[in-house]
Structure formats: structure tokens, C-alpha cells
Design goal:
Layout (H helix, E strand, L loop, with lengths): L2 H22 L1 H8 L4 H8 L8 H8 L3 H16 L9 H34 L3
């Protein structure tokens, strides 16, 4: 699975979870409209592991392991000034990569969901 395929999978996960969140949290849609997505991002990529299990994580990372590690290192250096992720643990690497890539993907999923929702409102199909 390529990096692009990983990001597509993460995007689809974010979109699915986003729809679930909106279904059960009336305020979530208003937060998205106002551009306040940090709580939603936290629920999707920080409250639960994306991948559970060392073997599954190793398989998911595959040949892109070092590219994922590079993105994690860049993110941690930029945001924390030091590195925290245990790079010897595939499960931690896979989940931190999902977190790092996830913010941009949640923004994209929110935009798509708003377009769909606003389109339904225009048609009177809420």
C-alpha cells in the first residue's frame, strides 16, 4: 500500500467517523461550520488507536515505513522540538503517522461533509 493509498484509507476513516460524530453530537456540525475541528480531530485520531497490533501495523506500514517515520520526525521536531515516538514499535509508528496525516485529512473530510450537507439543505432533504 502506497503513502497515497494510506492517506486515502485514513481519509475514508475520518469521513466515516465524522458522519458518526455528527449523528450523535448536534453541536459538531456547528463546530465544523465555524472551522473548529480540533475536538473532532481529537475524537477521530487521538481517542482511539487506528491500528491495534504490532503485526497489523507492520503490514500496514509496509515499504513506506521510513517515509512515515520521516513525516513523524518532521512533525515532532516542528511541534515539540524533540522526538517522542518509539520508532522501534510499529504500532506506535503507524498510529502516530495516522495522527500526523490525519489533521489535514479531517479538514478535507469536513469540507466534503459540509458540501454534501449544504447540498441536501438546498434540496430540502435534511
Amino acid at each position: 500500500m502506497s503513502i497515497q493509498e494510506k492517506k486515502q484509507e485514513l481519509y475514508e476513516h475520518a469521513l466515516e467517523r465524522l458522519k458518526e460524530i455528527i449523528e450523535y453530537d448536534d453541536d459538531a456540525l456547528n463546530d465544523i461550520r465555524q472551522g473548529e475541528i480540533s475536538d473532532i480531530f481529537h475524537k477521530i485520531f487521538n481517542e482511539d488507536y487506528y491500528i491495534v497490533g504490532y503485526y497489523q501495523a507492520s503490514q500496514w506500514l509496509g515499504a513506506d515505513t521510513f517515509d512515515c517515520i520521516a513525516e513523524i520526525q518532521e512533525y515532532e521536531d516542528t511541534h515539540f522540538g524533540e522526538r517522542h515516538t518509539d520508532l522501534g514499535n510499529a504500532e506506535k509508528v503507524a498510529n502516530m503517522y495516522a495522527y500526523v496525516a490525519g489533521y489535514e485529512l479531517v479538514e478535507k473530510a469536513c469540507s466534503k461533509l459540509l458540501e454534501e450537507y449544504e447540498g441536501q439543505l438546498e434540496l430540502g432533504c435534511e
